[in-house]
Structure formats: structure tokens, C-alpha cells
């Protein structure tokens, strides 16, 4: 049945000068350092070093074969989202990168499944770009976990999620744009602390913001990075819902009643953490993910599942591919 990795990223090997094509702004650009290496730049600052596995289907497929991965969901790198830009500019950026994503995945359409990005700051434009992208060959959409101070329960985002449910399009939520401070700017703390907290907060927003009470259960939505710190603190969340109903008990049901409404990936690196996810959410809500090809991702892909001796063979199969087939409607 094959292994499916639902959390990977791509970077095109170059794109048009966005300041010329879209308009003035602090846009990402690619500095090509060699035939196989490049650096994403924001103005004069280096954002991230990347290599050919970000844009070369051949290089990507070779590493997939080495790790025994049959299918990858290939999503944008979140720095391209452009949620802070004017909506008309963000539409143009989304179209550029969505079309380039199709080119990256075109050499292996059965193995590389492209996910689109949308201008989430404008619900109507986001819905329109989603429809265009799906008609062009995209298989789903990746969104950031917030748009400025608007979390996933903001009315505009809910409109977009409802549209995804109506179109039966799977949604992958990825943390991005973590807060910066002197305390978080050391030791990659934005990624080590901020990223799990951001994801946790957005799951809470879907529950307490009433999104799961309003959007049909047909919505297929998954959170990257194991859902952040949510599983570990579900007990505290549940306790607060019952003890402070004036502030927390605002959803129709307690938090634990919504655990079947979303999935998470398995990028938690340690079997003990994976066991917590399975014990909390159920094995049917966890899908293999790796964050490939970035350095903080898992290699070999799926190794945490291999080391999880508490999982049954059926549970391993579900996490490796069965749950993803349902999520992707394969």
C-alpha cells in the first residue's frame, strides 16, 4: 500500500522579481549559490539555505526511494504566504508559486501531490484561488495558522474553511510567523517553543471559537508538527473548560469531544511523544509526516513509527498510509 508523507515542502529554483511583477515590498527572492544550493533571501537578510531537493523531482524521488516513501504531499514553504501584503498582491504571489509548484511535481504526478497556497487575508480571493489551483491539478491547500492577529476562528478564515469543506479539499495547517523577542531569538527558540505554542493555540481557536460547531464534519483538516503542544495539555484545557465556563466553556461540548475533527502528523521524533498522540487522539488521527527536506525534519522518514514498539501492525499501517489515503481521498 506504500508510505505516504503528508508534510513536505518545496522551493522553486527561482521566480520572477516580485517587486517588479507584483509591486514594492519585502518579498522573498532566491540567491542561487551553486548548481545544487541556494539561499532564500528577504531583502538583504538570509532566511534559509536550501538545496536541490527543494526543486528537483529527480533528487526528491531518489531520497524518497531511499527512505521507502511512495507518495509525498508537497506544500509551499510558509515564507511565501504573503499574508501581510495587500490582497491583490498576495493573489499574484499565490498564482506564481502555485503554478511553479505544479512544475516541480509534474515529473511524478502519482508520487508528488502538490498543495496550493491562498491569499488567506481575503476570503473571496482565497476561495477563488483555491478553485483555480484545484482545477489546475493541486490536491489540497496549506494555510498558515493565523493571519496577523486573526486566528482560525476569524470569520473570514471560517468562510474559507467552509469553502474547503464544500469543495471536499483537504487542508494542512502549518505554523508560521512566530513571535520574535530577545528571549525567542536565541537557540532557534521561535521554532523550538514558538512553533508548538502557535499550533496549540490554533487548535484551541477551532474549538473555543466554535468553528467545529459550525463547519461540517466533512472538513478534512490536519495540523503539522504533531499538533504542537496540544496533546500534552489537553487535560489542562479540559479542566479549564469545566472549572471556568465563564471564560473557557464557550464551545458546545468539552474539548475532548472534538478530537475526531482533526488530524496531526507524526513529526514528534520520539516514540514516547508519538504514544501520547496515539493515546490522546487515536491512531486513526495521526499521519506520517517528516517536514522534508528541512534540517529539523525527520530522516529517515518514518523512523519514529519504526521505533514505536507499542503500535500494532494495523496501527503502523494506518499511520504510514491508511489515514493519509482517507485524508487525501485517494
UniProtKB/TrEMBL annotation:
Q: What is its EC number?
A: 4.1.1.45
Does the entry feature the keyword Secreted, yes or no?
A: no
Record's GO cellular component, any one?
A: cytosol
Biological process terms from the Gene Ontology for this record are: secondary metabolic process
Pathway noted in the entry:
Secondary metabolite metabolism; quinolate metabolism
Name the Pfam families on file.
Amidohydro_2 (PF04909)
Keyword vocabulary terms for this entry: Decarboxylase, Lyase, Metal-binding, Zinc
Q: Quote the Gene3D superfamilies the UniProt record gives.
A: Metal-dependent hydrolases
* Keyword Lyase set for record: yes
Which GO molecular function entries does the Swiss-Prot or TrEMBL record give?
Answer: aminocarboxymuconate-semialdehyde decarboxylase activity; hydrolase activity; metal ion binding
Q: Amidohydrolase-related domain location, by residue? A: 4-329
> So what family is this one in?
Belongs to the metallo-dependent hydrolases superfamily. ACMSD family.
Q: How does it assemble?
A: Monomer.
Name the UniProt record assigns to this protein: 2-amino-3-carboxymuconate-6-semialdehyde decarboxylase
The record lists the organism as Agromyces terreus
